[in-house]
Amino acid sequence: MKFQVLALFAALAVANADHVHPHLNRRQDTTSSTSSTTSSTTSTSSTSSTSDSASSPAAGTSTTSTVAPAGTTTTTSSGAPVPPGSSTSSTSIPPMTTTAAAAGTAIPPLSEISSAMATRTALLPTNTYTAGAKPSFAGAPGLPTPFVFSAAEWPTWDRVPPTDSTEVQAWMKELDGHDIPDLTPTVDGSCGGDPAAAAAAADRGWWTCGGHTRSTDIVACPDKLTWGVSFDDGPSPFTQYLINYLEEKQLSATFFVVGSRVVERPTILVEEYMKGHEISVHTWSHRPLTSLTTEQVVAELGWTRKAIKKVLGVTPTTMRPPFGDIDDRVRAISLAMGMIPIMWSRTPVGGVFDTNDWRVAAGYVKGPESFQTFQNILGNATQMDTGFIVLQHDLYEATVDLGVGYTIPYALDFTPKLNLVPIGQCVKKPTSDLYLESNTNTTFPPKIAQGVDTDGDGTVDTKSGDGGSTAASSNGAGSTVDVAFAFGSSLFAVVAAVAAGLI
Ligand SMILES: *[C@@H]1O[C@H](CO)[C@@H](O)[C@H](O)[C@H]1NC(C)=O
Ligand SMILES: *[C@@H]1O[C@H](CO)[C@@H](O)[C@H](O)[C@H]1NC(C)=O
Questions:
Q1: By Cβ atoms counted within 10 A, which residue in 14, 73, 258, 350 is the most buried?
Q2: Rounded CA gap, 316 and 321, in Å?
């Protein structure tokens, strides 16, 4: 069995060598050894990768993990990223196997923060919130009844959702009347993977290659020395450690959440929201959006928006593209659907404010390198005329520990003094503007002519949609399944199964 699967894995890896985005990662899937202990009471899933997770050992137990050596294009035990510019060779397979030590109980010394570190027990929210409870911002609707996951109602976790559903076809109507540039999807969302698109990056407004932005993007905080704090890819079993730390320090942050994780761990999302953090859309399956068809982008955004609304009762007016991979087509789709893109900062000389914490989770660097990157970012930030936004993650314990143990404390003690606030606040938006249901601003997001049918049931259901109506009808448009992604997913499923010690 093991041999067969490894052979399949090798075949898939080779088959994928030219198709997998250099950054394409499964970073939205948390370690197979932790997922089963999340707060979700509804972790049933029909997908292979997630059922692998669901039946794997609990976090905090001694477990076998599989770690790919750096420089291969495999994913790691934590489902972490593939390094840019690496090449695959079958000699790198199978990955080496290590046995993790017993559960850690505290934040390790910086030098020990790595993909192989012992992880603390998954931490579950202890607060319970009843239907109707409201967060503290103006116009907030009450929480819906607690979310119950039913696999039949949602697309498969961590896959690009099908585009022929009634929901996606209903959301496609939100693009009517908007000028969506007719750009061919990029090959894989990377510059190297699509030299022709890269050569036209300025025209395309492609952020990935050269950092091209448009005035509608949020790329920094206007006030100097203000840090718009954010965490991507959760909710995870470690997010609660972060929430607790932020509360202790009386800080708030913006959480860019993945739809698949939202329906997996709804109570953690509720905790984020009710504790005063800002919630924003980070897609359903964390693919590079420029590489998807327009219908697929709509599906990725629409399902995540719907998941957040189901759990919290609100529809975000902002989004962040995974990998920062946005161009004028993806921007226009996002804006038409009522979501303003939020990026992370770059310096005029090309410095990108990415802490590289995800590279720690991937096993490519360790804590000290990522922390040094963060220190450089703050150093560079002091030279900027504006404030700044930094990329960090709450999907892995390594990245959460870097945040609560190192980067945030360092920033709090920094000279000159920094102001740490969530991104909506740093751009001076009242929290009510960040959700359609409470938003009273008619220009943020840009006017949504037909209103928004967040749940995709064929009826407009936001306040801003009062004047319109959209009758949903499935026109049976064919699904455009992306073969590369299908392969990528199979590859991941196998890696996850091996990592979980199931095979
Ligand atoms: C800015 O970042 C670069 C590259 O990370 C680093 O070498 C430099 O020291 C930083 N500048 C400051 C003032 O910290
Ligand atoms: C609406 O949002 C825009 C963009 O952020 C802002 O310039 C404007 O002042 C806001 N209007 C109101 C009434 O808050």
A1: 258
A2: 14
